[in-house]
Write a structure and sequence with these properties.
Chains A, B: It is found in: Cytoplasm. Chains A, B: It catalyses: tRNA(Asp) + L-aspartate + ATP = L-aspartyl-tRNA(Asp) + AMP + diphosphate. With 582 residues, chain A is an alpha+beta fold. Chain A is built from 16 helices and 23 strands. In chain A, strands 6-9-10-22-21-20-17-11 form an eight-stranded mixed sheet, sandwiched between helices. Chain A has a five-stranded mixed barrel with strand order 1-2-3-5-4. The longest helix of chain A is centred in the first third of the chain and has 23 residues. β23 of chain A pairs antiparallel with β23 of chain B, so a sheet runs across the interface.
Chain lengths: 582, 582
C-alpha cells in the first residue's frame, strides 16, 4: 500500500493520526529550519511540514532536494495547522513528516502546473500528460466521465441497450470523407472507419432491438475548422415503433435529467420552433434563445422609397440592440467595419438610433422619415434607447450576416451567460439542400431521413420545399443533437437515392444490405445523435471542446505528443498491397 | 404512440383493458373462422385472436394476409385465455383484435426466427439483422449490455474515471500487426488503430488521473484463428501508486461482483498460482481448475529402466483419469489416435490401468514392474479404478500435449460445467520469451512490464529466467484478464528496449514520448485489461464469442452482411497519396 489516505482527504478529525501519503510536489516554501511542501494527487492537496525541531535533521535536508513535480511518498502525523486556510479542504491540518521516499524525480516542467498556467496551447499539447495534472483539464475529464455515466444510466434505466457496432466498415460516397483502412487479407480492398453507426443502428431496429444507444467514436476526414476533431464522440440512439414526438419526449427527458443532475437547473417543456421560423427569426437553424434581438423583416416598410440598396435587396432585415442608441458614431463605425469583415461579408449596415424622446436618427434619414423609422422600430421591437441595425441582400447571406452580428452583440452585452441554459427543439428541417459545387441536391441530414408523408409529392416538382421528419436539439446556440424519423420501406429509400443522384446500381452496391433488410419486416423507427464532446463542454460552461478531450489532435490532424501520423515501413505497405503515391 | 404496451407486458390483471401492440408476426394458426396470431417484440410474445364471431369479418380476412415477420400494429381488448400457457409470461391472456394495421410486409425469412433455427452460420451472418431477432442472440446482446453497465458502475463507484483515448495513433513495430489509416493531410504518413490504449493509459497515470478505465475497441491485424476478431473490446484499467497486490485486490473485487450479481455465485478469495507452478501442474498458463487430473512428473520413477522412449525424453509426465481403468482396448486406442492428431502432435501414449484390486496393467509391462507402476500411481495421484495416461518428450511440447488431453478428457467426462465458476490468479510470468522465428527475446506481456526488482540482475545472464510483475486472471480455463506493474523510470525502460533489440534511436523514435514522460514525475503504476467479448461469453455460459457481438466478422475479416472491406474510388486513393500494389 503506497498510501493510507489521498491528498484531499485529511480533516481536523484526523489530527494525531499516522498517515502515509503519495503524490506530486506542488509547492515548496523553504524557511531554512522549516520546510513546507504541498503534495498533490487527483483528490486534492495537503501541506507537509519538515521541521528541524520536530523531526530528524536528515529528513529536513532531504526535503530540500525536492523539486516541483517530484513524486514522493511520506509518512507522518496529522497535526493542527497554526494558520488555517478556509479555502482549502485540508486547510485545517498539516502533516508533520517522519519519513520521506522519493519515488521518482522530475525535470522542471516546461510550464507551470497551476490552474492558470504560463504554457501556450502548443507546448501544453506536446506535454499533454503534464497539462492533465492541472485542475481545469483534470476536472473537465472527470466531468466528462460523470456526464457519460449519467447518460448511460438514464438510457439503461429507460430500457435502452448499449450495442457496440463495428469500427471496420465500408466506405460510402455520401456525406463527408471517410478514413479508410487497407485490408491485408482482402487484397486491394479497404475498410472505412464509421462517420456514424447510422446503418447499423437501423439494422438493429430491423433486428428488433427496440431501443439502442451507444457512446461511440466516429471519424470524419475533413479539413479541420477550429474546434473540430477528426475523431469525435457521439451519443448515438435509435428507437423502433416511434414517431417524432416519442423521440423528442425521451431525449428531452435525458437533457432535462442532465441539466438537473449537473446544474441543478430544472427546465419545463423545451420550446419548439420550425426550421423556417428559426431562419426567419434568428437567421440561423441553431438560435441562441437566451436573449432577444429577434429579426424584423423590413421589406414591406423599407422598399417603398428611393433607397436603391434596399429596393434591390431580396431581404431587408434588422435587429434592435438593447440600449444601443448611446453608441457613439465611432462605436457604430466600428460595428460597421465588423460586419464588413470577410468572415461576415456584409457590404454595409444601416442603423437607426431610437432616441429616448421617441425620435429617430438614422444613417438613411435622406430616404426615410420619422414615420418610416417608427414602423421599423415596431417591426424589430425596438424601444426608445435601442439601436436598430439593418442589413440587406440575398436572403440566405443576409440572414447569416445578421445572425453573426446578433451573436457578436450578445457576447459584447454579456447576454451569453454560460450558466444559463436555454434548450430548443428545431423541427421540420428541409429534406434536401442544393449544393452549388456539385450542382445537385444533397440530403440535409442524411439519405435515410424520412420526408414528411404530406410532402413526398413535392419531390419531383419542388425538391427544396420537401420537409423532413428531422429535428435538432439546440442548447445556447449550439446544436447538441440531431436526428430524424427514418425511411423504413425499400420503395421510399430507392426514391430518395434516386433524387440524390444515385443510379439504382450504385444504390444497390452501396446500401443494398439496408434496402434488403427493409424487405424482411422493418419497423417504423427513428433516432438522434448527440455530439458528446460539445454537450460536455457546454454543460461544463465552456466554449471549446479541446479541453474536454484527453488527447486531442491539432488542426492538421496531428497528435503532437506521440507525433502521429508517421511514416511506416515499406514492408508494412507491401503486406497491405499499397504503395505511396506522392 | 405506436403501442400502449409491449408484447411481454400483459397479465391477467389487464383483462378488459383496451391495448395497442406493435411487433412482428411470430406464428399463425389459421382455423378458418378463427385465426390465432402470435406477435413478438424485444420484450416478449402475446397471442392475438381474430374471430369471425367476435370481430368484423373483414378483420379476420385481413389477418389471413399476414405472413411470418410482417410488422403489424393491432388494437384490441385483453381477454382471458381459455387454455392458459403457464410457460409463457403472457400465457394467461390473449388480445381480441378490433383493429389491424400492417406497418410493413416481410418476405419469407431465409431461416426460421426461432430459438433453434434452421439457418447455418453463413446465412445467419449475411442476414444478421434477422438473426438478432432470435432470442438466443438478442439475449446475449442484452446480457452484454448488462455486464458492461455493472462493470462501469462498479469501477466508477471505486473512483475510476473512464477516459476516452484516441483511435488514430501511431504504428509500432512491437507486438501484433497494426491496422493503419493513410493520412490525407499528412502526405505519406499513416495513423494506426490501437492494439490497446497501453501507452495512453500510462500517460494518464503520469498525468495524475490515478484510476483510469475504459471499455474500448482494440484492433489487431492477425490471421484469424477460430473465435478471434480483428476488432475486439477490452475493459482497460490502470492505477497509480499501486503494487501488484492492490491491483489483484480491486479486480478480484470486480470479478466477484460480476459473479455475484449475474450468477448469484459468491466466491471467497481467488486462489493464486505462479506461472511455473501452473505449467508444471497443468501444462498450461491458464489452467481450468474446476477439476483435478493434475500432472505428475515421472522422470524419477520412469527413467531407471530400459525403456528408451522415456529415457531419452526431457519430461515424462502423466495424469490420472478418474474411473478410466474400465476403458476398453479400443477406447484407449482411440485416445492414442487422438493425441497423435497433428493438432496435438504426440508420438504416442503410455497408459496404466489401475485395477480395482490394486494391481496394474500397462502398455509398458515389458519394462516396468508393479512396484514401478505403483510409484507412478502415487505421483499422479491415481486411485484404483483410474487410468494413467503418460506422455513424454521435450518439456514445452509434452506439457502442451498433455494439457490438451486433460481438457479433452474433462470435456468427455462432463467436468467442464459452464455454470460452475473457478477463477484463478496466475502470477510471476516470465518477462521475456524466446522467439524461434526472429531468434530474439520478445516481451511476454509487453515492453512496458516491470521486471521483478530482484531479477533485474539476471537480464544480462539468464534473460529467460527474469520474472515479471505480471499476472493473468483465469476463469474456467480461459484467460479473461491480464496485466502487470509497469516500468516507470526511463533507465529501466531503456534497458528493456535494449534487451528487446531496439537501438536507442529506434526506442526514441517509437516511444520517446513515453520515456520523456517518465522524466517529469511518473508515479509507480500498473494495470490490467479484460477481454470483454470473452468475459461476457464465459459469464453467459457459452464457448463462442461470436454470438455476443452484434456484427462480427468472419475468419477472413469480412463483414458478409455489408460486404466489407470493399474497393474504393481511384479518386479517394489519390487524395490519400497511395496507390494499389497488387
Amino acid at each position: 500500500m503506497y498510501r493510507s489516505h489521498s491528498c484531499g482527504e485529511l480533516r481536523a478529525t484526523d489530527i494525531n493520526t499516522e498517515v502515509t501519503l503519495a503524490g506530486w510536489v506542488q509547492r515548496i516554501k523553504d524557511l531554512g529550519s522549516l520546510n513546507w511542501v504541498v503534495i498533490r494527487d487527483r483528490y486534492g492537496i495537503t501541506q507537509l511540514v519538515f521541521d528541524e525541531g520536530r523531526s530528524a535533521k536528515e529528513l529536513l535536508e532531504n526535503s530540500k532536494k525536492l523539486g516541483r513535480e517530484f513524486v514522493i511518498q511520506i509518512k507522518g502525523t496529522v497535526i493542527e495547522r497554526e494558520s488555517k486556510n478556509p479555502n482549502m479542504p485540508t486547510g485545517d491540518i498539516e502533516v508533520l513528516v517522519s519519513g520521506l521516499t522519493i519515488l521518482n524525480e522530475a525535470q522542471t516542467p516546461p510550464f507551470t502546473i497551476e490552474d492558470e498556467t504560463d504554457g501556450g496551447e502548443d507546448i501544453r499539447m506536446k506535454y499533454r500528460y503534464l497539462d492533465i495534472r492541472r485542475n481545469p483539464v483534470k476536472n473537465n475529464l472527470m466531468f466528462r466521465h460523470k456526464v457519460g455515466m449519467l447518460v448511460r444510466n438514464y438510457l439503461s434505466t429507460n430500457d435502452f441497450i448499449e450495442v457496440e457496432t463495428p469500427y471496420l466498415i465500408k466506405s460510402t460516397p455520401e456525406g463527408a470523407r471517410d478514413f479508410v483502412v487497407p485490408s491485408r487479407m482482402n487484397e486491394g480492398q479497404f475498410y472505412a472507419l464509421p462517420q456514424s453507426p447510422q446503418t447499423f443502428k437501423q439494422l438493429l431496429m430491423v433486428g428488433g432491438m427496440d431501443k439502442y444507444f451507444q457512446i461511440v467514436k466516429c471519424f470524419r476526414d475533413e479539413d479541420l475548422r477550429a474546434d473540430r476533431q477528426p475523431e469525435f464522440t457521439q451519443i448515438d440512439c435509435e428507437m423502433a415503433f416511434v414517431e417524432q414526438e416519442d423521440i423528442l419526449h425521451i431525449f428531452e427527458g435525458l437533457t432535462r435529467h442532465l441539466l438537473s443532475e449537473i446544474k441543478g437547473v430544472d427546465i419545463a417543456d423545451f420550446p419548439r420552433m420550425t426550421y423556417d421560423e428559426a431562419m426567419k427569426t434568428y437567421g440561423n437553424d441553431k438560435p441562441d434563445i437566451r436573449f432577444g434581438m429577434k429579426f424584423g423583416e423590413l421589406n414591406e416598410v423599407a422598399q417603398h422609397k428611393d433607397f436603391k440598396v434596399f429596393n434591390d435587396a431580396e431581404l431587408v432585415v434588422g435587429i434592435a440592440v438593447p440600449n444601443g442608441s448611446s453608441y457613439t458614431r465611432k462605436e457604430i463605425d466600428k460595428l460597421i467595419d465588423w460586419v464588413k469583415r470577410p468572415q461576415v461579408g456584409a457590404l454595409g449596415m444601416v442603423y437607426v438610433k431610437c432616441n429616448e424622446d421617441g425620435t429617430y436618427k438614422s444613417s438613411v434619414d435622406k430616404f426615410y422619415d420619422q414615420e418610416d423609422l417608427a414602423k421599423w422600430a415596431e417591426v424589430t421591437g425596438a424601444n426608445p434607447g435601442d439601436l436598430i441595425c439593418v442589413l440587406s441582400g440575398s436572403t440566405n447571406k443576409v440572414r447569416a450576416q445578421l445572425s453573426a452580428l446578433r451573436m457578436e452583440l450578445a457576447e459584447r452585452l454579456g447576454l451569453r451567460n454560460p450558466e444559463e441554459f436555454a434548450p430548443l427543439w428545431v423541427v421540420d428541417f428541409p429534406l434536401l439542400e442544393w449544393d452549388e459545387d456539385t450542382e445537385r441536391y444533397h440530403a440535409m441530414h442524411h439519405p435515410f431521413t424520412s420526408p414528411k408523408p404530406e410532402d413526398i409529392a413535392l419531390l419531383d416538382t419542388k425538391p427544396g420545399d420537401v420537409r423532413a421528419n428531422a429535428y435538432d436539439l439546440v442548447l445556447n446556440g449550439n446544436e447538441i443533437g440531431g436526428g430524424s424519423i427514418r425511411i423504413h420501406d425499400k420503395a421510399t429509400q430507392a426514391l430518395m437515392f434516386d433524387h440524390l443522384g444515385f443510379t439504382p446500381e450504385e444504390a444497390k452496391a452501396q446500401f443494398g444490405f439496408l434496402m434488403d433488410a427493409f424487405e424482411y419486416g422493418a419497423p417504423p423507427h427513428g433516432g438522434i445523435a448527440f455530439g458528446f464532446d460539445r454537450l460536455v463542454s457546454i454543460l461544463g460552461g465552456q466554449e471549446t471542446i479541446r479541453d474536454f478531450i484527453a488527447f486531442p489532435k491539432n488542426n492538421s490532424g496531428r497528435d503532437v505528443m506521440i507525433d502521429a501520423p508517421a511514416i511506416i515501413d515499406k514492408e508494412q505497405l507491401k503486406e497491405l498491397h499499397i504503395k505511396l503515391d506522392l
